[in-house]
Design brief:
The structure is a homodimer of 245-residue chains. With 245 residues, the first copy, chain A, is of the alpha+beta class. Chain A has helices at 27-39, 75-80, 137-145, 196-209, 217-223; strands at residues 2-10, 46-47, 56-66, 87-95, 107-116, 129-131, 149-152, 167-177, 182-189, 238-244. In chain A, 40% of the residues are buried.
Chain lengths: 245, 245
């Protein structure tokens, strides 16, 4: 059997997240159906990241096994012909037997987009978090520095996560004001707890609003107390950018 | 009577362009209905730019007259409550009687987004023009310079335009490679012929592909011959960014 790795982009707006569930349409299911149709037999795929309802991805990674003779790099074209246009296989390749999309992952990069204006955006709706009050970017940048490094991020985890340890390392956390009222929060780390990026984004938005002081971040991290951090920012602003192996 | 100026953002995907037509839904009609509902009487609005089916806007400008007592800057909030989320009034203000959204305009800025990758984008679909062959940005930048200045742009006009003169001045034309495989073409000028920006974009894409030589642009402009320029790039990549008064 051969193992095929897929890099996947999707607009999460019309899907009930990545993982297969009863009675709702998910990204995983949609891709499995396309591959099964292509190969003529039932194929299951294993994705790295179980993105939530409404979350987008530029670089989700999944793998599947097959005895098909299609060259590894040609799967992307063949599968894309059978997918709706809001899911695209950006790259496919044959990988060694010991590769696993989830267990081999060494880190991830996420982007969170805030749309900061008195009025919502018609073009960035479903693709960003609309925040009305003018955010203080400098305060957000100061706060961002405190997240970098290895910490116990228990205060930045929603209930529902099933992990033994809540210690994670954040390699970088960059805040950038882009054109058209967009603030981008880009975070790279060795792993993320359930909703961790969205809670960090929500906390940074509170810092930008002046509801949390930038220098309070270390205390919030040390508290291990979810109620001390900001609210979980909505799914539509979150993009899974890249997974490192 | 008071005159109110509106700045409008819209995602053009689900509209049959700006201008009211029979049997299809347009942006103008949708806004007129919202304002008419707000004010309790039939209101007509006059927009600056008759954007085509699928074209987007960050900065369309329109005006209407009313004897309503609503403060000028509050119309945006009141109208937005009655609009679908893919059309947003970003700003409203009372203007003097002699203001006219179309006739007072001194220039416009457009953006054209090309998505340049072997596979389409799930996230930028309907918001960019997907071009598969790798484009040579440096050639496109060299070609862009030739458009700047006052020229007769007859070669860059689709049939259907109703203008006396085809002379226009382009103030700037910037090509920039952005992240995530996006190439942005940003053009500012004192006015644009019918489909002019889309034909310039299509021509620059041909230059990037090597189908037209960069240094051929002056000859194409001088020819006044539409068949010499590149094809009209599709509507979904075009954004009306700003109108100057």
């Amino acid at each position: 059997m051969r193992k095929i790795k897929l890099k996947i982009e999707y607009d999460g707006t019309n899907y009930h997240g990545w993982q297969i569930q009863k009675n709702v349409i998910t990204v995983q299911e949609t891709i499995e159906k396309a591959i099964s149709k292509l190969l003529g037999n039932q194929v299951g795929i294993i994705g790295c990241s179980r993105t939530d309802v409404g979350v987008h991805a530029y670089g989700q990674i999944a793998h599947f096994v097959t005895d098909s003779k299609i060259p590894g790099d040609k799967f992307s074209y063949a599968i894309n012909n059978l997918l709706p246009s809001d899911i695209v296989i950006k790259q496919s390749e044959e990988v060694s037997e010991d590769f696993h999309s989830r267990y081999s992952a060494k880190g991830k990069r996420y982007r969170y987009l805030v749309y900061n204006d008195a009025h919502a955006s018609a073009i960035m709706k479903n693709r960003s978090y609309h925040v009305r009050p003018k955010l203080d970017i400098e305060k957000m940048k100061r706060a961002a520095k405190y997240f970098i490094g290895e910490h116990d991020f228990a205060a930045f985890q929603s209930t529902g996560g099933q992990v033994l340890s809540t210690v994670r390392e954040i390699f970088s956390l960059e805040i950038e004001k882009k054109e058209d009222n967009i603030i981008s929060i880009e975070v790279t780390g060795n792993g993320f707890l359930y909703n961790m990026v969205r809670i960090i984004a929500g906390t940074l938005v509170y810092v930008g609003m002046g509801r949390i002081d930038a220098d309070e971040i270390p205390l919030i991290i040390d508290s291990l107390d979810r109620t001390r951090a900001g609210k979980t920012a909505p799914a539509e602003g979150l993009y899974l950018m890249e997974i490192f192996y």
